[in-house]
Design brief:
By secondary structure, the chain is of the alpha+beta class. It is built from eleven helices and 20 strands.
């Protein structure tokens, strides 16, 4: 008996797929318990447009452009782009999302060319371009090509022979800036060569890709070895792997030095923290994960030379230094991550 019923169900579903049909509700009590949702199956007759959709009780399913997508009805109503729901000039919603019935369902759905029309219970009609749905669906986003990032170590980076970008090309051409950002996104570090060794030129370089973040160190920091500052960074001592500003509410990342007293968790949690810290530190200190580079100085004797500027993604790459002797001057700044990524997107990179 079950085999016969399942065979009948399969046959009926195949009939439904052959053309546009109205709602089909399963009547048998046993089958209804197995398949609790009534389903509408629709497809287009156009040979040039392969579009199939299923209207479920709690969501809308669309197959188009080789992508199967599922949309919540509240999401669909919330993303209506009609004049009464969306301001096309400001690209902001006029519709109050909290006013949408959480159990909302469309009364009717129809396709005209490449546009789906949803009529809601209050009579409001929403138009969805099929390509827009593909682009903005969860499933479509998963297929979106993101600018590649690579997990690298010293050997991988050295073998890649990543080229630096010339200062003038960086400042004056989109191609130079784009090449720099591609390297930066791929590895989390990137170099600019032939930079005049002044704070002003370094600042100009930074402003090419981002707003400079104002911090307690000022807009641009510029320092030499100064033991009176009470900061290891201002000494000649070695600095272990770290990222900066971990004491900020919005820190750049991890720092083994700038940690406040751990006094907000009980002893057993603290011990687990130290265990995790040991595991992380061992991994960070593996020689194969270190890439050492000697930055080019801006002055050799009395002669002024062009120098090298290094950009570091503090969300991905830690930095440090060896101890040194002699006199050293260094300048730099912090950039806002959102602006760096936005510059990359403006140049066509999927950052």
């Amino acid at each position: 008996m079950w085999c016969r019923r399942l065979s009948h169900l399969q046959s009926r579903l195949q009939d439904l797929l052959r053309g546009r049909v109205t709602c089909w509700a399963l009547q048998q009590p046993n089958f209804k318990s197995l398949f609790p949702l009534a389903i509408h199956w629709h497809h287009t007759a156009s040979k040039s447009l392969n579009c199939v959709w299923q209207q479920h009780e709690d969501h809308f399913e669309l197959q188009y452009a080789n992508t199967v997508m599922r949309f919540d009805y509240v999401w669909l109503r919330d993303h209506c782009l009609s004049a009464s729901c969306y301001n096309s000039k400001t690209h902001q919603r006029s519709l109050d999302t909290a006013s949408v019935d959480l159990c909302i369902q469309p009364k009717t759905i129809r396709l005209d060319e490449t546009t789906l029309f949803f009529t809601w219970p209050d009579g409001h009609v929403t138009r969805y371009d099929l390509d827009w749905l593909v682009k903005n669906s969860y499933e479509g986003q998963k297929q979106k090509v993101i600018q590649p990032r690579i997990l690298w170590n010293a050997e991988i980076y050295q073998q890649a022979q990543v080229p630096s970008v010339d200062f003038q090309s960086f400042l004056e051409t989109k191609e130079g800036l784009k090449n720099f950002l591609q390297n930066f996104l791929l590895y989390g570090i990137a170099f600019v060569e032939n930079v005049p060794p002044t704070q002003e030129h370094t600042e100009k370089l930074a402003e090419r890709i981002s707003l400079i973040r104002e911090t307690i160190y000022g807009r641009m920091w510029y320092f030499t070895s100064d033991f009176s500052r009470g900061d290891t960074a201002y000494t000649k001592l070695a600095l272990d792997r770290h990222t900066d500003t971990t004491y900020f509410q919005e820190p750049c990342g991890y720092n083994n030095y700038d940690r406040a007293v751990i006094n907000t968790v009980p002893y057993d949690v603290v011990h687990r923290w130290y265990t995790a810290h040991r595991t992380l530190t061992i991994e960070l200190r593996k020689p194969e994960n270190e890439f050492w580079v000697k930055l080019k100085p801006g002055r050799v004797g009395a002669k002024l030379e062009r120098c090298q500027v290094l950009f570091i993604d503090n969300w991905r790459v830690l930095h440090g230094r060896e101890s040194f002797t002699g006199y050293r001057q260094l300048c730099g700044c912090y950039l806002t991550r959102d602006d760096v990524l936005n510059t990359a997107r403006l140049l066509g990179l999927q950052a």
